[in-house]
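User: Please write out a complete single-protein record containing the residue sequence and its fold in token form, without commentary.

AI:
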Amino acid sequence: MRQDVRLLGDVLGEVIRDSAGPELLADVEHLRRAVIEARRGARDASAGDEIAALVASWSLVRADQVARAFTVYFHLANLAEEHQRIRVLRARDTGQQPVRESLDAAVAELSHDVGREHLVQLLASLRVHLVLTAHPTEARRRAVVSALRRVSELLDVLDDPRTGAMDRAETRRALHENIDLLWRTSQLRIKAMDPIDEVRTVMAAFDETLFRVVPVVYRELDRALAGQASGQTSSPVPAFLRFGSWVGADRDGNPFVTAQVTREAAAIQAEHVLRALETATTRIGRALTLHEGSAPPATALRRALAAASAAHPELLAEITERSPQEPYRTYLLYVAQRLAATRARHADLAYRGPAEYLADLRVVQESLAAAGAAKQAFGELQHLVWQAETFGFHLAGLEVRQHSDVHARALAELRAAGPPGIGDGDGPDGSGLDGSLDGGPRSAETEEVLATFRAVAWVQDRFGADACRRYVVSFTRSADDIAAVYELARYAMAGGPVPELDVVPLFESAADLTNAPDVLTGMLAIPEVTRRLAANGRELEAMLGYSDSAKELGPASATLRLFDAQAKLAEWAAGHAVRLTLFHGRGGALGRGGGPAGRAVLAQAPGSVNGSFKVTEQGEVIFARYGQQVIAKRHLEQVSSAVLLASSPRIADRNAAAAAAYRDVADRIDAAARSAFRSLVETDGFADWFARISPLGEIGQLRIGSRPAKRGLTPAGPGAVATMDLTDLRAIPWVFAWSQTRMNLPGWFGLGSGLAAISGAEAADGSDGAEVLRRAYRDWPLFSVLLDNAEMSLAKTDRLIGARYLALGGRDDLTKRVLAEYDLTRRLVLAVTGHDRLLEDKQVLSRAVALRDPYVDALSYLQLRALTALRGPIPDEERDRLERLLLVTVNGVAAGLQNTG
């Protein structure tokens, strides 16, 4: 990795020198040496003052160039780390023993714990549902990501020992070309992203990674179960992965996501998956050159060929002429033509749905198996079956999300006008041509709510109910919020067929989490819910919001409250004979429920996983996890293996026993941590202070997503620091802005106070509180994950530089409180974990953070220069350049810390 970093850094240095002159390179090196030397010294304020003076001596143009240099360097360093991770993953896979956190390891452990029979039962109910969202946390432009992908491919060539001297020379030339292009590409978006841009961006992850990796994951599990027989016999592995998407469907607080956008999103997804299936079917079909004499087709395949010839004689004759006496090749190429017709909407040849396509694949598979060609039946063809079962013809189920208050306003307006279905029938939905009911005009908001339901009906009619069935209600407070969705659907369809809906309550606030079981009980009395439960085997879904609960309660209290909510909901489900899937709305950052996904699954409340796990994959996490096939496979294996293990009685019993043993400890930590956090954010003037010390107001100018940073946001004028209201501020900019200050406050604040409530007290058994905390860290996975995540957040915190940001607010009282809680949390986390320094037990990660810190420092000092100036009176002609400098550094710090929101 050091070799890669050195190579990429040297090429970047040459590019900077050649394109901008040796003086710029000298300034970059001057700053680089200064921040490294400051880290080696005593780290006092005087060293920081000297660095601040250095960056202040440059013109704004030069400061912007230096910031760009460090930002591009971080993009390249991240790429080198990614390559090293891939090397390590490949090196670990020796085949001698199962890789840790792999499906092979999970199968071995469960076979020992519960036996093969119970393992097969677990597999039958296994479901891992990953939902991609457009949360605005990917700070890199798509052009930058594409340039980095090309650099990555070139590194692969240089890494290959088979590469010859001529090819190596050409690769190095191409490397210079692409890094030069990366340097000359703007790091900032000129045009704001719209929702369709976001849809197409996510499609890149599907095209380049997900579609290819999914069957590889299934094959790994099949190999773990069947051993050498894998690929030669019928597979016991179900297609347990499912994908959902909020991209182009989540309209909560985003006025740019409209009914038309949702329709377009569904059409784009279908285009991509149908094209992918067509390509794969064609490739596999062309390879199945088995002669009918060596592998006679079964009766079912002969009938299918005859039916195809009768329905489309010219097409089948053309294919048969190219593939004489090759029935398997002929039929699969015909199937590929039907997929092309489905994509082009040619009704006479198109499939009516994925079930028909899967039936055709199985006809070929069963015929091959009957003819003795088992390797062809259960090899690549099985991969295609798995892909079709996973993605269908819609790729990912679109999930509409809207705020309960929006529904309430629309329903009040509609009820005042009259019951559903009484429009005069002139409009397309049975309403008046002017968008009215009984002559009363409807507001634009209400009209869009109704149009959304009509869009859902259109998507279901065209792509099937699975393409857009779920409707998430933000801030669900009662079952009435769920019933409102069904009533609105009836209004929208005006007496016509209502789309099939699974309405999902989203519990986000502390009060809503406490009230969640009562809401679900109320839902059982809603006729539409009752009918859905009868139709789907009593399956129900409820979503838990990690981001907003952490912003309200602080990280420690939110983690503990969410665990309690999961336990109570699992108990509720068991008592009502409901198979409940908990949908975890986890962000990428530690302050929004992020962190290692596998460990998080294993720490869930007993009974809350039960073979089914659903979670959001947000923003920068999508490309971090699904940008490279090797890393994507590893992530999917980690999550899937953890879901299997968490569903076993041993893990559930362990978590239940630990939670019961440390119930009193958790309650006291919760109370003290919540009190400390709420005391801080409820201090008079805190919100405006936060806006002054961070680039919160400027983050929106990055144009990294279509959604505003605040529900109902009205942007402040140029240079103004908007008056803040934390209630409506979204969790992403809250976390993003704190990470830029280097304090990372949402990841740890309050935990120190919570631990202090225990560490100085005596337990009931006479042991001191510190020992109780150490036992809890050892025995309770949830508590261990909480402290380890906080330790990571603390490791990415820089107290010295953070204090400079805090000072910008002119509130010594708030500065002292934040720094005192940091000192307390750091001291107690180290004491409980038994570490002498942060991340002591994670040497590779600790080393990576330490190597990055000086370079992030350079960008922070440049950012502080811009932020300080923008918070004071400045000439208008300087404002644009200062804001640009600030935004470039925001982008760079995000790359350096490897997280945004």
Summary: Residues 354 and 392 are 5 Å apart (CA to CA). The two ends are 27 Å apart (CA to CA). Residues 60-92 form the longest helix (33 residues). Residues 422-439, 589-593, 713-722 have pLDDT under 50 and may be disordered.
